[in-house]
Write a structure and sequence with these properties.
- The complex is a heterodimer.
- Chain A is of the alpha+beta class.
- Helices cover about 45% and strands about 15% of the residues of chain A.
- Chain B is α/β, with parallel strands linked by helices.
- Chain B is about 25% helix and about 25% strand.
- The longest helix of chain B has 12 residues.
- Chain B is elongated, with a radius of gyration of 18 Å.
- Classes of the chains: A alpha+beta, B alpha/beta.
Amino acid sequence: MDRYDFKIPIGPQHPALKEPESFLLTMHGEKISSMTVRLGYNHRGIEKACELQTYIQDMYLIERVCGICSHSHATCFIQAVEEIAGLQVPKRALYIRTLVAELERVHSHLLWLGVAGHEIGFDTLLMYSWRDREVVMDILAMLTGNRVNYSVNTIGGVRRDITAEHIPQILKAIDTLEERTKYYIQIATEETTIIKRLSGVGMLSYDDGVHLGAVGPTARASGIDRDVRRDDPYASYEDVKFAVITDKHCDVYGRAVVRVLELMESYKIIRQILANLPDGPIAVKAPRKIPAGEALSRYEAPRGEDVHYVKANGTDKPERVKVRAPTLANVQVVAHMLKDRYLADMPIVIAAIDPCFSCTDRLISVTDAGKGTKNTMTWPQLHSYSIEWHRKSGIDFSELNKKFKVPGN
Amino acid sequence: MSEEDNIKQQLIEKFAFLSDKIIVKRARRIFAEVPLANFPEVFDYAVKQLKFSILSALTGLDEGATLGFIYHIAQEKGIVLNLHTSAPKDNLVIKTVTKYFPAADAYERELVDLLGAKVEGLPPGNRYPLTDNWPAGQYPLRKDWNVEMLDKKEVNKNG
């Protein structure tokens, strides 16, 4: 550090990032010479709380580790519990879990695309991708009753079945999303602004990615060919064909390319699941007390490898639950990516690992602050109210929705 | 012979003391119990020779008189080796694995903060995940810890 160096503290609360993390940057002019990260502001003691609740209660608690990958955590946890209990989960239930997993990946990647657009000042991309994300959110709500925190799992299977009426609606939504994703692929590969802004930013070489333990799309964009769905298959991933997308750009641009191409693979998986959905029960009866034992479960969440370790002691409460979310593995590579880069690159480099943002708010009881009245609204009513409210403000997507055949519009 | 059994065999050939300490629980899952004194050499062999090149997670457990540590390391092809070792609570010293896996930094700091482990060789850095003003000597993942043990005046003051 010389006399021209200075330090900039960013966070824990700041405008660029939606979750609390604290970064201390040492600057040499406009360039970052080193960075330290302080995590833990969002640590809620969930692992300790799990030891005090029953397995079923824990399932709902674990789902709240992350609002975006709620199904990832719940499934990862429950797989470990089922393995210890020796439960044979019915094939139909595994297919439904896989379906929800891929729908969740679609919603998460589309959400990321919007955030990435926003961080580089390309808010049109944010508006487009988040509008399209509503298509998959509606499908998730239709299947599970919730837009996030779906609670579709139970120990021994799933809580909700798919009906014959659901399938054409899901397929229609996937057709729409596939068309839109082709457009995003075109933008990612042809739009000069995107290519120039993201190329060479946040570099992570293959060797550094392996050494630092990068996971998920962050690793795959550095050519690291790892995906738990293929390498350590769970649910029904052994029954479906899909490609693990990798890219050799090793920068933020590569991370964007990997995610948009992964969307296309998710659509392939969803179509295969729906075409081959087995008949039969959706759950087996699970014991309240889980026999003593231990298991390690892995899951390819949208952000990378999610890991849960569960130790059972023969009671209805676990002895220990350990969660390793993918962001914890990836946040450590950020310091490396930002070294000798410009301060202005910081928001997009951090956003490019897709750190978890909470997006779980969902209103059902609406209070009019002016009148003090309360009015309970159903989800379709709230949806219509929102569209009407924007239409009155001069924002009307009805023609576009017709053009792109957006379901429910 | 399955790949998992092959790995088990290689470990036993190299370290005779592991002969009755390794279990293949299912496809791609091996669990091994390693004495603390031998842990560094077993870990080094697993990472360098058996190519367990991914650190998936590091779990700490309160086992009563000892603390348990499970290093979940994986191969590219999906096999996970779960190496369990334990240290007595009156001498809770383990060696850092950050020279193999820099990402272990955060996982080992968790062991320090939440369970009170002492990790020899852990590079200096910010604590994780507890707050800077967390009371000394309180380890929330210990079985004898509960929220009532926190000083209420301290909690009210600092949130």
